[in-house]
Amino acid sequence: MIHMLLALTTPAVAQPAPDPTAATSEAELPPLVKDPALVTFVEAPYPDAARAAGVEGTVLLAIEVAETGAVTNVSVLQGTGTDLGLEAAAVEAARQFVFSPAEDATGPVPVVIEFGYGFVLDSAATNGAAPELTAPTTPEELPVNLDGQLVEMGTRRPLAGFVVRLEPLALEATTDADGRYTFRGVPAGPVTIRVVRPGFAALEQAVVVSTTELTTAKLWLRNESYASAGVIGYYRQESAEVSKRTISMEEIRRIPGTFGDPIRVVQTLPGAARTPFGTGFLVIRGSNPEDSGVYVDGIRIPYIYHIGGFESVINPDLVAAVDYLPGGFGPRYGRSTGGVVDVSTRREFPERTHVTWSTDLLDSGALVMGTVGKKNEHGFGVAARRSYVDAILPLFLDDGFVAKPSWWDYQAKYQWQGDGPDELSVLVFGFEDVLIASTPPGFAQSTDADGQGELGTKYSTHRVLVRWEHPLSESLAFHLIPSFGRDYASFNLGNSWSIVQEQWLTEIRAELPWTPNEHVKIVPGIDFVGGVSPFAVTLPFNPEQFAETDPLAEREPYVIEDVQTGWGPDLYLLTELRPLADPDRLLLTPGVRFNFVSIPGEYDIYSFDPRFAAKWEVFDGGRLKGSAGLYHQPPQPFQSYRGDELPVELGFERSISGSLGWEQDIGQAVQVEAEVFYKALDNLIVSNPDFDGLEDQFFANNGVGRAYGVEVLARHAPIGNFFGWVSYTLSRSERRDQPNEDWYPFDYDQTHIFVATGGYKLPWDIEVSAKVEYVTGNPTTPYSLGVYDVDQDSYQAFQTGAGNSERLPPYWAVSGRIDKLFTFKSWQLDIYVDLLNALHGVNPEFELYNYDYTEKSYIEGLPFIPSPGFEAKFQF
Amino acid sequence: MTPLLTLLACTTSELSESWQIDRLRVLAVAAEPAEPRPGDTVTFTSLVVSPEVEVAATIWFACLTGGDDFGCDVDPSLLEDLDPEALTSDDLEALAAAGFIGAEPFLPPVWAVPTDALDGLTPDQRREGLTALVNVTAVPDIPSPTEQDLELAYKRVPVSEAETPNHNPVITSIRVDGVEIPPGTTASLDRGQPYTIAVTLSETSVESYTFVNADGVTETRVEAPYFTWYARDGTFDRTFDLWPYADTVFYAPDAPDTENPGIWVVVRDRRGGMSWASVAVRYR
């Protein structure tokens, strides 16, 4: 007897394919709220050649499922390696499958799923011995005397569509949506329940069946590779943002050295420069770190990293996706001339309650998520994390010396998951980072009398964010995201230095997406930000004296206490036009943004940003894309204050950028893309060369810049056992601070940025991954031969070359990671070790001169560090 | 952030440190008087140490205006062919025009403050004064020294009509583990052992003075001097102290391999006044 075993490898392994009529923007990556389920299974005939040869195997298929649930295309992702017709049989059978449609928040959507079609020869057939026992059929009138439920070990996930067989009887049943199975009229006596399914460990469980009473057996089936659960299968993504790159959290968590941090992974993608260890900067396409915006669910936040730059401020388990837009982004995003990183939090929570506990070298955290309500209509997730570096560091310090960096964060999200067209969620999150450092009494920290005392820095952010999406008609919807929050930052050194800034911010994003047909989508929107910012600055000297750098000058304490207010109701209009009969072939996205910033008493400035992007599928799998646009960025808050009655005379910094690229699919798993870009910057805010006193402005819009390069990305989606990508950026970024000065390389100009990363799933739930980096060193300015300032007790160096005319040595590092997953009935334990800088690569981060500038060396980054950690997941 | 980064980063420590005297150094320069008035004659002394080679000459320039972050702007060609032992009157005239005020050991540095130095200033500005600069170039006694072999230093000299002009601090004693070391004597230290090195200032060294702030209010302030420690070898517990702390712990080297070991301390009053002391050392 020959049995066919089907293997639906994951319950939801699809990236939503384009849905031009969806009211929800694709830029926000709506997750599926309902997975596709196999309704009609078609058994493939076992190819004679394979049967004769006794060959078994699994064919990994990519099945495209339409909004209706019909199969529109089937292709082979991974064959059996034989030429015996198994692949063709599997494809032909899968084409006749019928699924229930997948759904996102807007309704049914087309998806692509991974599907393992298994061919297994029955033992009787392969052994030749055929003790074919005669068993009665199971007519409906016979009573049920054996039933139970089949669930996945570790996750308690009901396994639907699995064949449960009784040996030696030739009886079988298929589990329903809840994983339940039933048998009628099973003869009394011992039987063996057998479940064989590719991707799962074979299960055999003996039971004794009675004809007079019901026997119930709960079956725990062990998945051979849990890591694939929930993997987003494809990157191919139609989007109005032609340069957008989307990463699945599963990949993020498996990349060595990232601590599961989404932003660190962004730094492995094209266009992102490597920033020095511990800084956590985001330098995209030659822009300043402050020129790029970081968003959580569409609302901008000031910091994405905890202190030291190791981990982001959002628990990775609550993150659904990270959109990385190095340039060419549409009018939805503004106030930035650099790039954008938008972190989307979960919109779907599991029916069962999940509890996750994570511990690594730096911190520990917990996450609880699940649903409540009769129909599980209330989804929730609550997470918190606290570092313990402040408890460990003192062990390495001498008595009396204190260094206590600490951080914590929290997130709580409520998501309405009930019936009805509306989507409603509430996200509350916040974090705080503190660093305290001090020395024993009597220990001189420097020769400066005002440089003594405890050093303290603190920054914190709290936000409440509501997201409401309401369809007004078939083609019109209303999206509203109001948020309110507080940012706080302070620095103090003893009693002489103190800077405290507080911001109470209201941010509102509202959109009215109108989709009259599948060829047109028009989205008017408003992106409002306004706030009040009290601040206080205490310095031991007048800033004018500081400019003179005279160590003998008498100092006078300088204090400013003031309140700054500002607001900016930016308006935007983005359109998505799909003019061809096949709407997926050509996408045009013209848009415009109106920028306005008012700082009462200082300035009111406005500008218009026309932007355009296009993507054209020239042939199946080959796409041409391009963008051009104008971008304006207002002055930073500290640049927008002038301590006198005169207004600040500053305007927007401006960027004109363009890009042109090609994307090529190679099979279903591999995509290669290349993109050239050019960005011209002007009105950059630099130090005012005419500054001579506090009646002058510190800053002026005198700077210009340019950045250009080519980015290449080749990636293999996490299909099968492998995922990975190779990223290479060849670029140049230059600045000129004053009109008549020479161009010089920007501080983070890196000619070559090469990153290769990948992971592979081994048997026994072991995964290995690795990352290789090679980056040109950052520019530096050469100095030598200092002249001793006897009064200052320090050397003044001669600059012996142009600014940024030399470079640090190149950075290279190889890191690895090994994960081992242990699965128990109701919980799982993932133990891992990150091998940071495993090959002891040379990684100079900063230049360091000796006291008189006659010797030079480097501060190096991390040495080889094995960083262990674990994550325990419980499901109830 | 710095402590965290320092701990986690792998910082190279191959660079020479300021406290260790392993080359020709100018450690201090004192003007007398420390805060002259227009028309005063100012003499200068310096603490120049050179453990490996002798110091051939110390050349001095002064300027009232025209200086920058590197001291007086002196034309280097003036010194290229200069032989301090055979200066002619023409040489001296050209040098004097450029601000030359001395070349030790042949011509002790002396600067006459121009009598019109504060002309054109208001009475308040004259009390506040202005700052002159003095350049010091130490030349090692080696054949054909290059620019890299020279040690360049500069100092500010406040010129004013202040009611409470500054004076140089005075170190009255230097002690090793509480035992005063008279000038010219050598302290014998056991290898690898710690010793407390301390100095005492005279009672008048930490001065009170008046200062008119930006609001026109006269304040009485007290100096806050600091001490910088140097050694030929060994190590220090800390290499500087802020008044009233004036001591450090010196760890004698386990295996000294330097010639002429010693310990030096310089005190600065942050108003331009300074002074120094030293201890010659022998290791047992």
- The computed structural class of chain B is mainly beta
- On the 0-100 scale, what is the average pLDDT of chain A? 82
The Cα radius of gyration of chain A reads 31 Å
End-to-end separation of chain B: 43 Å
Q: Structural class from helices and strands of chain A?
A: mainly beta
Widest sheet: strand ordering of chain B: 10-9-12-18-16
Unreliable runs of chain A: 1-29, 123-138, 227-239
Estimate what percentage of residues of chain A fall within beta strands.
over 45%
Number of helices of chain B: 4
Largest interface: A-B, 51 and 52 residues
Give the overall shape of chain A: globular
Percent helix among the residues of chain A? under 10%
- Largest beta sheet of chain A, briefly? 22 strands, antiparallel, barrel
Arithmetic mean of pLDDT of chain B? 87
Tell me the distance between the termini of chain A.
39 Å
Number of E strands of chain B: 20
Main sheet specs of chain B: 5 strands, antiparallel
Quaternary structure state of the chains depicted: heterodimer
Structure description:
The complex is a heterodimer of chains A (876) and B (284). By secondary structure, chain A is mostly beta strands. Helix content of chain A is 5%, strand content 53%. Chain A is built from seven helices and 51 strands. Chain A has a 22-stranded antiparallel β-barrel. Chain A is globular. Chain B is built from four helices and 20 strands. Chain B has helices spanning 2-8, 77-80, 89-97, 123-128, and strands at residues 10-11, 25-32, 41-49, 55-63, 100-104, 110-112, 130-140, 151-159, 171-176, 179-180, 186-189, 194-201, 208-212, 218-222, 226-231, 235-236, 240-242, 247-251, 262-268, 274-283. In chain B, strands 10-9-12-18-16 form a five-stranded antiparallel beta sheet, with no helix packed on it. The N and C termini of chain B lie far apart (43 Å). At the A-B interface, strand 44, strand 49 and strand 50 of A face helix 1, strand 1, strand 2, strand 8 and strand 17 of B. Strand 44 of chain A pairs parallel with strand 8 (151-159) of chain B.
